[in-house]
Amino acid sequence: MPEETMFSKIIRHEIPATILFQDERITAFADINAQAPTHILIVPNKIIPTVNDVTPADEADLGHMFVVAAKLAKEQGIAEQGYRLIVNCGPDGGQEVYHLHMHLLGGRRLGRMLKMN
Ligand code: 5GP
Q: Which of 1, 16, 44, 83 is most exposed by smallest CB count within 10 Å?
């Protein structure tokens, strides 16, 4: 079994978080350290540590993350102006929490895709 992170506790409602969507496959909640007016994390309920651990059995959950991202972007009023979806993987990718997640960022001009720091 992969090791649990804080995200599993959020999914089980054991620690506080602003949960914006939850079903049997995925959970979406506000990032605790928002980098933009909208900053939501969309995570599979099942622990998948990184993109390197994804298997064909995860395709439905991962596809559902995009469907929910689009729904949340509409609800947040950022769909028309646009937004960014980010999935970090491993140390060079800047991943801090080893429970795969998609960042949904928007509500301001996000600038260049990569910052060199
Ligand atoms: P990563 O760098 O792994 O792609 O992003 C991890 C994200 O999780 C960061 O943006 C960080 O602010 C967020 N985060 C870490 N711990 C918590 C937490 O306990 N609650 C919430 N809501 N977000 C968290």
A: 1
